[in-house]
Design a protein that fits this description.
By secondary structure, the chain is of the alpha+beta class. The chain folds into three domains: 142 residues, no CATH class; 78 residues, no CATH class; 81 residues, Alpha Horseshoe (Serine Threonine Protein Phosphatase 5, Tetratricopeptide repeat). 44% of the residues lie in helices and 17% in strands. Strands 1, 2, 3, 4, 5 and 6 form a six-stranded mixed beta sheet that branches. A three-stranded mixed beta sheet has the order 7-10-11. A two-stranded antiparallel sheet has the order 8-9. Strand 5 and strand 6 form a beta hairpin. The chain is globular, with a radius of gyration of 22 Å.
Amino acid sequence: MKMVETLEHVIRQAADHPRHSRGPLYRELLRSETFLLTVDKPLTAEKVTRVTRNNETFPVWADRDAELGGVWVPVFPARDVVARFVTSRGLRTPKGKEFLWMGHKPGAVFGLMRGVRCFAGMRLFLEDGSFVSIPWTDVQVLSEGRVPSERPEVYELPLTKLVLPAGTKLAFGCVSVGPDEPRAKLLCLPDAGHFRADDVRKLVKLPLSSVGTTWMACRHFIQVLRYLRAQGAPSDGAYMDELLTAMIGFQMFGEAEALCEQLASHGREAYAWNALASVYAREGKLADCAALCRQGAAKYPDETTFAASGARALHRLGRGAEAKALLEDALRRRPGDPRLLAARRDLSL
């Protein structure tokens, strides 16, 4: 009971003070049992108390971000909090299914998130509905049993330039970017959308000629791109490309996966699959990357990126013979292709 109370306490502290250190929260998470909400077949006499399925797919409840498309998985410090979450939201299960709480040993839940499609992060919920968001990047570190850095994630501008129309309303605040910049300028466009205080844990650097270097929450940067599109620029295709480039550049891989799915369903399948394969490789989902590249190479044989990327993924998986066969098959169709030759040279195949 004391362990549960301690975990709930540090979650509360992080929720109430989003810019404070998360070290105590992360250390407590690594030594505490946590719970997921799953949707599964009704149980008979047995009772789920603590289960960890490392190599099995199971139906976990998740919330899709209505704005950016990524999926956030709710995680709970106690069984009672799971029940209150279901009740407060008025959730209903599909016919023949029921909600189950699934307990996981300390630190085990983080590695399970690898199997969640479009995974953007976890949300630690308390009984009153308040929560703390943990992005994909921090979940990855926690899955290795390590405590994420206290410093915010900082990124360079992922686009060639960002042009704000004359007369755009700007607002400035302060943000700590580390010991060297404890009171840096934080820029936001009020008309572009709102973001949470903990979103400033992921920042992009913006060199503005009029005011010097400023910083912007990465999530808000995505909102700004959408706002600029609504104002008439850039073109539809360029906008989607910039959106995807920014998401991948900010390691917002769950959101990027969701955008790729959207693009694939709107006539840009080859482009979307290539981008998705790149996302999978960056996430470490090498088997998924290789499988998608095989599918892409078969359907779009002139897109040699599929064979090259698939071979690299297979090589990293220790499946060198398959990587070599994939490249050789592509080279028979496109002899002398520089992308394929470069992959063969780099992999020494």
